[in-house]
Amino acid sequence: MTVFALLSVAPVREGDMAADVAAAIEALDDYDVAYETNPMATTIEAPDIDTLLAAVGAAHKAVEADRVSTVLKIDDKRTADHDASAKVESVEAELGRPARSTRIE
Predict the structure, then answer these.
(1) What angle do CA 55, 99, 77 make, to 5 degrees?
(2) What is each CA distance from 29 to 15, 96, 101, in whole angstroms?
(3) What's the alpha-carbon Rg for the chain, to the nearest Å?
(4) What is the pLDDT along the chain (105 residues), one digit of tens a residue?
(5) Which residue of 43, 62, 64, 83 sits 20 to 30 Å from the alpha carbon of 51, by its own alpha carbon?
(6) What's the pTM?
(7) β-pairing, 3-11 with 42-46?
(8) What is the pLDDT of residue 89?
(9) pLDDT score for 26
(10) Rounded to whole angstroms, how far apart are CA atoms 75 and 82?
(11) What pLDDT score does 41 carry?
């Protein structure tokens, strides 16, 4: 079964965190997961919960700081196997359009 997660890992400090976030993202590359990063978090798709948790643990450990904050939300639907794109396509079918918009100023 496919397991999805929303992951946010960051050091607890002021200033630019791009290098720290990049280190966490690079740690995911050592695992059998697919991921997509956006400005707020990273969505991860893993074949099972053990792989997901191992990847998340590595991402957390990759941030070298005195204090690290990790937020994790897991969707583990055990009765069906869907990939992330199918979930988005389902919402877009309901909307009748892409599930995205450009910023209106």
Answers:
(1) 40
(2) 26, 34, 29
(3) 15
(4) 689 999 999 999 888 889 999 999 999 999 999 999 988 899 999 999 999 999 999 999 999 999 999 999 999 888 877 777 888 888 889 999 988 888 777
(5) 64
(6) 0.84
(7) antiparallel
(8) 87
(9) 96
(10) 11
(11) 94
Alpha helix positions (H), 13-64: 18-28, 49-62
**All domains of the chain, ordered by start, with CATH?**
3-78 (3.30.70.930)
φ, ψ of residue 44 to 5 degrees: the values are -120, 140
Q: Are 33 and 49 in contact, with CB atoms under 8 Å apart?
A: no
Query: Hey, what are 31's tokens?
Result: 């695992």
Element (H, E) at 89: helix 84-95
Q: Which amino acid is at 4?
A: F
Axis crossing angle, helix 18-28 with helix 49-62, rounded to the nearest 10: 150
